[in-house]
Design goal:
The protein is of the alpha+beta class and 215 residues long. It has a domain at 18-108 and 154-212. Helices cover 33% and strands 19% of the residues. The protein is built from seven helices and eight strands; from the N terminus they run βααββββαβββαααα. A hairpin with a 5-residue loop joins β2 and β3 (69-73).
Length: 215
């Protein structure tokens, strides 16, 4: 949904190798989540539902396009700003460590990095861009060649869920309707961790379609 026109377009291959430096897990970072990200994170933490992520202060809502409320990881602020899922230690006034959610429960935006996707629903198009995970990311200087097609295949299921999430947000935005935070958490961001995500996702879409008449 976000424009990435100012970043280089990836068409086939790109150079990158993660060095596990933790730079993208600290400082001024915005980690946007989709509904499947929430589901996987909550299951990792053994929460009964994804709404607990908000109650626990791990995820927060922020205002996006057309006043839509979107979920982001809430970074810790002390002693430095860093992701709550970073197993960290402080060395020379810098935070480093490994992601507790890696590899099976990390957010899609983190798993894809440095690849970023832009979706244009009006024209039914998508594009892929190279976005540094952090301004000082050493991985962008790597000679390792990665296939865009391979990356897309690796994350195909997650990308499919994200597409449906963004499409629903696009339709909500186009409707011009306004919703309270409680509505977003209850209707879009609350999933039972003991039930199949896909089944719940489809039910959520159908209910919103019926109630709001937006699709």
């Amino acid at each position: 949904m976000d424009s990435a026109d100012k970043f280089p377009v990836i068409r086939e291959n790109y150079n990158f190798a993660c060095t596990l430096c933790g730079n993208c897990c600290s400082g001024v970072q915005d980690v946007l989540l989709d509904w499947y990200d929430l589901y996987r994170m909550a299951r990792f933490l053994e929460f009964e539902n994804t709404a607990r992520l908000f109650k626990a202060g791990l995820v927060e809502l922020r205002t996006g396009p057309e006043q839509l409320r979107l979920p982001y990881i809430r970074f810790k602020q002390r002693p430095y700003r860093f992701c709550p899922f970073l197993e960290n230690h402080i060395d020379d006034d810098k935070i480093s460590g490994l992601c507790r959610l890696h590899p099976g429960h990390k957010p899609l935006v983190c798993g894809l990095a440095p690849v970023s996707r832009t979706i244009d629903f009006e024209n039914d198009q998508e594009s892929w861009h190279f976005v540094k995970p952090a301004p000082d990311c050493p991985g962008v200087d790597s000679s390792q060649v990665n296939s865009l097609a391979g990356t897309i295949q690796t994350w195909s299921n997650e990308l499919a869920y994200q597409t449906r999430f963004f499409h629903l947000l696009y339709r909500l935005s186009a409707s011009g309707k306004q919703f309270a935070d409680e509505w977003f958490i209850r209707r879009l961001y609350n999933f039972d961790c003991q039930i199949s995500f896909e089944r719940q996702m489809q039910k959520a879409i159908e209910q919103i379609v019926q109630e709001m008449g937006i699709l």
